[in-house]
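Researcher: Here's a chain I'd like modeled. Treat it as a single chain, no partners, no ligands.
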Amino acid sequence: MFEEDDFTGLFDNVNEFKAAVRAVVKDEVDKTVQGELKDFFVLLARGGDPVPGPDDQHFKDSHRGLDTRLDDIYRLLARGSSTARSTRPARTSETPTAPGQAPGGDRRPAARIDPAPLGPRALACGRSRREAFMPRFGPDISHHQKTVNLTRAKPHVDFVFLKATDGIVIDGAMFVDQTFKPRWQQLAELGIPRGAYHYARPNSSPATQAAHFISVVRQNEFRSGDATILDMEDVKASKGMSASDLRAWVKRWVADVRQALDLREVIFYTGIPYWTGRMGDPPRLPTGCIGMVARYHKRGPYVRPLRRPAAWPDPPAIWQFTDGTNGRVTNIPGIGKVDCSEMTETAFDAVFGHEEDDFMALFKNVNEFKAAVRAVVKDEVKDEVDRIYKALARGEIDGQVVATSTHFQDSNRGLSRHIHDEVDRIYRALARGEVDGQVVATSTHFQDSNRHLAKLLEDIAARLPESTPRP
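Model: Modeled as a single isolated chain. Structure tokens:
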């Protein structure tokens, strides 16, 4: 007899619940690919029956598409990087990269930077220590990225930061990024967590710059759950200011923005050289701030010769690991090679206002829980199946497919043959009463079908002009 599971005792918190759902999703995806898609593999991926040999062009296209997909997965799981990483022009501050480092960074294996033990779930998933603690990924973009397709980028990012304002004055007005408004609105429509950043110019009033930033984001419907970022890196605008002056500047800007926008915390962005040099390497991060450190290196944010500042945790809450040229460069579909960051789950919840769900109160019983899991699985399977279909059935890679290609033509020919056969079977069942190839000419069904056909032919004949009798 089936007993209700005590599912509320299975997990300590919502993150464990989400991890369990992800594990179920993975299993269901595997089952779907192995089961439901198995019958279509020969037809779609290999050009039909009989199975073509390894020299067949369709066969080669399929394997090329699969190899590309598997290579992406290998890099992501085995090496902690994927082929999708991101490019904003270089910032004006000291480049947070080790002196002498060549573009692209060190090619040695990624170092495990977090001293905490790796949990059993992370080990089971084959993830690195850093990825287990910094699972969230997203770019920051501005007017420098002129062409951006956020819809295409959505499956590949957990959040997006946009430049909103800059403390520089141009033609008598403080700068506003003209790409901010349309992209900010689209992020809301797509449901992608979003953040707005201000590029600080410490040589002018922090109160004035804060008021400018507040005005711009309010005009664009800044709401609870949106993030704010103070970008503090301009060396030229900091010239002549003491470390205490700079810290006081940050304190005032952050206080004004937190109060006006009712924020719990602001993201404070800088590079290690700026923090340890210009700002005097203080023992604590600014009050009310979560730290976002820029260090473009493949092995981690605190790799020699730049040590970890005492105020910054290991791993940092947010690590910007590439500027699109240096570090672990990522080419994000729809965006390209731009500044990209990783974020811890704790920081993600704090930044975007996600409170710990009382998941035990979400379901009345285990059957409701299972139904919710099935709904999640259905969506995940659909996305995965869609990617596999495009690779196998169309030879499509990164959205590119040529209609004149052998692979595309083979797939369409195979599908047409499949549809023709299916329609033929349906016709025989519906129009002739035929089952398994057997039909009786004297059956009522057969006679009815023929009677209707005869009437149809009579109607057609009646509309035709009368033929002239032959001499």
